[in-house]
Protein: MFS transporter
Amino acid sequence: MKMKLKGLWLHRDFRNLWFGQTIAMFGSHITLLAFPLLAALYLDATPFQMGVLYAVEFLPVIVIGLHAGVWVDMKPKRPMLITVDILRALFIFMIPVAMYFDFLRIELLYVVVFLIGVNTVFSDIGQLSYLPFIIKKEELIEGNSKMEFSSSSASIVGQSLGGALIQAFTAPMAVIITACTFLSSALFLTRIKKKEPPIQKVDKKEEKILGQIAEGLKFVTKNKVIRGLTISAMIFNFFTVLMEPIFILYVSRGLGLPPVYIGLIFAMSGVGALLGAFIAETMTKKLGIGPCIVISLIIAGIATLMIPLATLLPMYLSIALLIFVQIVDSSMVIVHNINQRSLRVSITPDNLMGRMNASIRFCIMGTVPLGALIGGALGSWIGTLETLIVGALGILLAAIYLAMSSIRSIQHLPKNPAQEEVNV
Structure:
C-alpha cells in the first residue's frame, strides 16, 4: 500500500526550497567541525587562533547583518540564494587548492571562513524572507516545522559527519564534498517556478540605505508583537549563551563525566530538536500560537532549572537527568522558535521582510559576546553551579516577559499584516 503524501509534501516549489536548504544546512554543519579540525590537525593552530577562528564565524552577522536585510529586500530572493550557495562552494574550494599548492595558512582560513559567513548571513535572511513568498500564511507553521526538522537533523549528523569525512577521505576531500553540498542546494533552487512579486524600487545611495536600515529597526521596535518577541529572544539568548561554556565546565569538572557521556548529553539536544519539530504543529493547534509561544518557553526554563539536581545524584542518574533536560529543553525551544518565526513573518509587510529578519538577527546575535563574557566572569566569581541557576532563572524571565504581554492571547496567524491589531 502506497503512503499518501499530503500538505507541503505536495508543494513542488516548497519541496525544492526545503531539499536545497536541507543540503546546505548539512554543508554548513560539516564546516563547523571540518574547519576547526583542519586548523588543529593541518595548521597546528594555537588555542588563541582557534578562538579567533570561532569569532570570525559570527563576525559577519554583527558587521553586515543590517545591511544584508536591506539588500535582501532590494533584490529577488531566489537568484540571491542561488548566488550565495555558489559563492560558498567557490570559497570552500579555495582550501583544497591552497593545500595542493602548499600555501594554506591560518590567515587564509580566517578569510575563507569570514567570506563563507558573509554569504551565510545572506542565505539565512534570504531563506526566512523567501519562504512566505513560496507558501501561504496558513502553511507557515508546517513549513517552518519542516525547516526546523532539517536544521535539527543537520545539527545531529553534520558535525559528526564532518569528522568522519576527514577520517575517511582526508581533509581536502572532505572539504570538496562539503562544497558540493552548496552546489546541490543551488541546483534545487533553480527548479523553483513561482515568480516573486515585483521589487519596489529604492534609492541605493548610502544615506538612503541607512534610512532603510533605520526603517527596519523602527518597524521591529514600534510593532508591539515583534518588539515583544525580539526582547524575549534577546533575554533568552543572553542567558543561554551565559550558560553554555559554564555547562561544559560543570559536567566535565563538577560532575566528572567522561567525554563520551558529555558527547551523548549534547547529542540529545539534537534529538529534542527533532521531537520539537514533530510536535510543534500539534501543540499550536491545541493551544493557539500565542499560548504555545509562552508555554513552550516556560517549560524550557523549568527543565533548565533541573540541571543543578545532577549534583545530588549518582553518575548514571545524573547522566539520565541531563539527557532528559536536554531533550525537553531543546524540543520546547524549537516549538517556541517555529511559532514565533511564523507569527512575526505573518505580520510583516513583504517589502520589510528582509530588514525585519536582519534587525532581529542583529539584536539577538549582539547578545552573544556580552553573554559569554558575563557568564565566564560569573563562573569565576560565584561558581559554575550558581551561574547555571542564574542562567535558568534568566530563561524563565524571558518567558515571564512574554506571559505578561498581549502575545499570550493571540490564537491564530493573521491573514495579512493589517490584521495584527485585531488579533492581539
